[in-house]
Amino acid sequence: MPFRVATEPGDPGRPNEDFAAATATSAVLLDGASAPPGVDTGCAHGVAWYTRRLGGLLLAGADAGLPLREALAEAVTTASALHAHTCDLSNQESPSATVVAVRVGTGGLEYLVLSDSVLLVEGPDGVRVLTDTRLDVLRSELARQGRPGDAVRAHRNVAGGFWTAGADPRAAEEALTGTLPAGRFTAMTDGAGRVVDVFGDLDWGEAFALVSDRGPRALLDRVRALEAADPERRNHPRAKGSDDATVLAWTPEG
Q1: In this predicted structure, what is the pLDDT of residue 145?
Q2: Quick one: pLDDT at residue 252?
Q3: Which of 71, 94, 93 is nearest to 82 (CA)?
Q4: Domain boundaries, the chain
Q5: Cα Rg for the chain, rounded, in angstroms?
Q6: How far apart are CA 96 and CA 237, in angstroms?
C-alpha cells in the first residue's frame, strides 16, 4: 500500500524525537515528549531512543493483527522493560510519546489516537479530524486559573489529566479508537499540525488537500517557511521556534 512519509527535526543538531513507520497494512506515528532543559528525566537513553523502540514494537503488534489498544499496551510494557533496570520509570518526566496507529483491512480503517497528534481521514462528508483534546482543554483551564504553562506537565498520565504512552500500559485504555470506511488519510505530529493550530495558515481540510496533492514534504516546507517568517515568535507564540515535524499519508491503490 502506498504510504508516504516526511519527517524533519526541529533542530538539525538534535535527534528527531518523532517516529513514523509502515508495513503493507499498518502504520504508526509517534511524537516524543521532551522535558524542559535541565530537568531530570530519570532516563539515561533519551526520548528519541524510546520513541523508536516503542514505535517499532507497536507497529509489529498492529501488523500481527492485535487489537490496537492491546498492541499499544504490550509495546509500552516491552519498551519499558528494555530500560527498567537502568532508569527510573517512576519519574514523571520519563520518556513518553503521543501515538497514532492505523491498520487498513477488509473491515475498513482501524485507528488509535493518544494525545495531541492528529489523524485526518477522508470520508463522504469531508475530512474527519481525530485527535485527543484533553491536553488542549487542560491548558485552557490552567491558563484561566493563571497558572504557568509548564504546570500542565504535572497532569500527564494521571486521572483527570492527559495521557501519553510512557511507562504505564494503562495509557492504552485512554486512547481514542474506532473503525471507519477505508479512505485516504494523513497523520501528523503537532510540529506539522502547527500550520493549522498555531499559524492558522490552513484549516485541516486544506492541510489534508495539500498533503494529498503535493505530498507530506510540501506541508513540512510550508511549516518551516512560516516558522522562518516569525523567528522571534512574536506574531505566533509557541514553545519552540521550530519543532520536530512528521507527516504520514496513505492513498488506496487503484
Answers
A1: 80
A2: 87
A3: 94
A4: 3-250
A5: 17
A6: 24
Alpha-carbon gap, residue 202 to 208, rounded angstroms = 9
Three-state DSSP state, 88: coil
Angle at 7 between CA 182 and CA 22, to 5 degrees: 40
Give the residue among 121, 68, 162, 110 at the shortest CA–CA distance from 251: 121
Residues of the chain with pLDDT under 70: 1, 148-150, 254
CATH 3.60.40.10 assigned to 3-250: yes
Q: Where are the alpha helices (DSSP H) in the chain?
A: 47-63, 68-81, 134-144, 190-197, 204-214, 216-228
User: What span, in angstroms and rounded, lies between the C-alpha atoms of 139 and 145?
Assistant: 10
Looking up cell 481521514, which residue turns up? 121
> Among 13, 9, 14, 54, which Cα is nearest to 30's?
54
State the DSSP H helix or E strand holding residue 248, giving kind and residue range, or none if neither: strand 245-250
Residue tagged 514553545 (cell numbers): 239
Give the other-Cβ count within 10 Å of 101's Cβ. Answer: 28
The pLDDT value recorded for residue 82 is 96
**β-strands 126-130, 176-180 pairing:** unpaired
What's residue 253's pLDDT?
79
